[in-house]
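[Q] Does anyone have a clean structure-token version of this?
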Amino acid sequence: MTIFGIAFFAFFIGIVLILFLKKTSPPAPQEQIHFDSPTDIPVYLSDRDAFKSKCVEFLESFRLEYIHSVWADDHELEITMNDETPVVGGRYLALCIIEPPGQTVNAIKVKGFLDTVKGEGASRGIFITTGYFTKEAMNLIEDEPVELVNVVSFISYLKKFGIYEDSPDPS
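[A] Here you go.
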């Protein structure tokens, strides 16, 4: 009887530890972006209108034609682009999320976007965030028509394309 009591107690403790483990925050992403001072942070990483302009400019660097965009809420911008390239072209969907620094996008949000891309028959999806993606989110899109662009990759691409600097205000 004592053996059953010890086994039950160990099982109970294991379940409690698993529940506590799930409530802890995920480890910090390995790649981080750092700025020397707050004035070095580009305005498009915190201002939604500047972020929209920079996302469209970024996507147009891939020779995609801007069709339209809509803010789904205060932090999520949905963009439709078109690629006229014969055979490999088609409609591209982009989801751009402006988050506070260090925030992560989870697998549920990525799965929802992946389902939208497939459901709307888009050729490809591009998910851009000013934060990071969880490991589960990155694993979810393997062999799928979706690209994940976190803040480090976003800034790297902007520098590569020569569009890193703040754009002049269009108004």
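[Q] Thanks! Anything notable?
[A] The beta strands are 65-71, 76-83, 90-97, 104-105, 124-129, 132-133, 146-149.
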